[in-house]
Amino acid sequence: MDTNEQNKKVVIVGGGITGLSAAYYMQKEAREKNLPLDVILVEASNRLGGKIQTVRRDGFVIERGPDSFLIRKKSVGTLAKDLGIENELVRNATGQAYVLVGGKLHPIPGGSVMGIPTEMGPFLKTDLFSLAGKMRAAGDLVLPRSGIKEDQSLGRFFRRRFGAELVENLIEPLLSGVYAGDIDHLSLQSTYPQFYEVEKRHRSLILGMKKTTPQQKPANNGLAAKKEGAFHTFRNGLVTLVDALEQQLEPGSVMKGVRLEAIDKNGDKNVLTMNNGQTIEADAVIMTTGHEMAGRLFAPHGLLQDVRQIPTTSVATVALAFPEEHVVQDNEGTGFLVSRASDYSITACTWTHRKWPTTTPDGKVLLRAFVGRAGDQAIVDLSDSEIEKIVLADLSKIIGIKGKPDFTVITRWKEDRPQYRVGHKQRIEAARVELRTKFPTVLLAGASYNGVGLPDCIDQGVAAMKEVVKKLF
User: Fold this and answer.
1) Which fold has domain 312-418?
2) CATH number at 111-212
3) Which H or E run includes 404?
4) Which of 7, 16, 87, 391 is the most exposed place for a label (fewest CB within 10 A)?
């Protein structure tokens, strides 16, 4: 008799960071607690990692998708330590960041926390806002709490506190970039709920952020310490994390190039039919695919159709490598964001060679620009040469560029960024309740649901893993 016959079987659908984290920690849990559990990870493509894709070329380390993660969110650092690769982590170099408004790069005022001023001096001196705009933003100091308890858009929330100018020239470029979304539709509750809490507790966002933002500790000599970067990545790219996870998953537990075509029930079991004709009976399933795929799979059962309608946007990243002498940068800094009101196609640009020095060989420059956003996605469908031409034209107006790049790496993410619209949290909670009625041992996790950053996705994978173990044992 096969000793594994009595083992519980869990299938994790999707080999991005959410699925990989769920599989790794579930296998770890099974070993440490001696649980009779078999874990299978199913990935439709021939590679793992999902949006994490690193190109290593001519000494450059170029990220096609995410390039780093916030250090204060602990889950990636913990995972790196568990995998034994924490010594590969590097912190970003700090430097001045800018916002492009009216064809000019304006330094982001010192003391800005996600665009909210916590120091009056830099805010009053900046020419990023008019005098009228500054006076309206200062109204936050005296305005009462809104009293709105239901979810609302980021745009509505911040315009009420600060007026239009601060929002359009600073807050919108900073906040919308993460979600490639429109702040007049993005949910406050699902994207930045901490700001709602600050208003609730402190009334004024300016005073509240000043009180709650940790102060930089002075150095031993009594002078201000050098500001430390808030982000980590891996010296040789984020794919380091994916490779380590793949190596440490149990042999034979990963199926690549196999796509889930249908999911049904047989008593307490979930029956999964693959595109190669194989069927797997699973005691539990963790679905880490995007919401559209989940909706398609459960459409025959009349489930998850509201979630399936979550809108998405398309973006593209454009990495350009140059000889150092071909790029003239008068500004010391690490990159800039672009105000939506500006007449440019790019939405942001990182001076990667400065922000992440380990990515770029000596004597070279690496720029990483972004195009595409909600309501302005047509550029993503253009050819590589057309996109490169547009990006170079934009950059040449902002920084001095001579000649063509040594090479360009363009990556399109088509209909890839889920938009957390107002009511998103309630929509996801309702979908989970709905799914539980017919498929109580199928769980949803990933960027479509409860956070798009790498730490958020790992947290979701771990939470789903714990829930499955609790259900089965």
Assistant:
1) Polyamine Oxidase; Chain A, domain 2 (3.90.660)
2) 1.10.3110.10
3) none
4) 87
231 - beta bridge partners? Answer: 70
Whether the Cβ atoms of residue 294 and residue 263 lie closer than 8 Å to each other: no
Contact 45, 19 (CB under 8 A): no
pLDDT, tens only, 66-108: 999 999 999 999 999 999 999 999 999 999 999 999 889 999 9
Backbone angles phi, psi at 394, to 5 degrees: -65, -50
One-letter amino acid at 438 equals K
Question: Taking the complete model, does pTM exceed 0.70, yes or no?
Answer: yes
**pLDDT digits over 158-176, tens only?**
999 999 999 999 999 998 8
Angstrom CA distances, 101 to 120, 127, 291, 337, stand at 21, 10, 35, 9
**Distance of CA 398 to CAs 40, 349, 401, Å?**
50, 11, 9
* Candidate CATH numbers 3.40.50.970, 1.20.120.330, 3.50.50.60, 3.30.360.10; the one for domain 8-45+240-310+420-472: 3.50.50.60
